[in-house]
Amino acid sequence: xxxxxxxTPTHGEPYRPVPYRPERMPAAESxxxxxxxxxxxxxxxxxxxxxxxxVPEQVVRDAIACAATAPSGAHQQPWTFVxxxxxxxxxxxxxxxxxxxxxSYDGRLGEEWLAALRPLGTxxxxxxxxxxxxxxxxxQQRYWLGEDGGRRKHYYVDESxxxxxxxxxxxxxxxxxxxxxxxPSPMRFLSEVLGRxxxxxxxxxxxxGYPARDCRVPDLVRKTLEQVLVEV
Length: 232
Fold this sequence. Notes:
This protein has one domain (45-213): 3-Layer(aba) Sandwich (NADH Oxidase), CATH 3.40.109. The longest helix has 22 residues, at 87-108. The relative contact order is 0.20. It has helices at 27-41, 57-67, 87-108, 111-117, 128-131, 157-174, 188-194, 225-228; strands spanning 79-84, 134-141, 143-145, 151-153, 178-179, 200-209. It is built from eight helices and six strands. Helix 2 (57-67) packs antiparallel against helix 6 (157-174) and helix 3 packs antiparallel against helix 7 (188-194). The strands form two sheets. It has a four-stranded antiparallel beta sheet.
């Protein structure tokens, strides 16, 4: 498993602005792109049935690179993306996840939460963790940890990592891949299986691949723009 290159955050340094003058897109082109993006994103679905067919690894790496451009509190970029391709490691993650999920579905979740999940057809069995050819395990860095043991607090970690995951899902979908956000609770086992440092806390497991040929998704209806948009 590759180890990220140590990165030292800027801290207490003076403000040094640089010019930013992107070329302004003509209104007609902007309208066309926005309409195309809306239509393509409207076809995005969460997939739980994956094909075992391999996916181009560079597509996944580029999607992660897109996610890493997300804005973050104080530009501290508090995220780590672990790309898991090894079949045995994926099996270990599935075993641990299903053990936690069995406890949850047997009562830890509570009836109200189970009722909310019922239309999705989910249960404690998680084949997507081994069927998908790759997993992206996203960790949030609660604080920066230097090689010398030094620490610095990170700010707005949940918000920053959440935005990055949203950008990751969009990049994967627009690149032709399917994904699922899986959040078994608790997720401490992910740090143990993947050997992550103490400053990292698991945020989500994202299986990535192509939908299985017999893939089915829940018959759900999204809210309309008029239902989610308030203009003042």
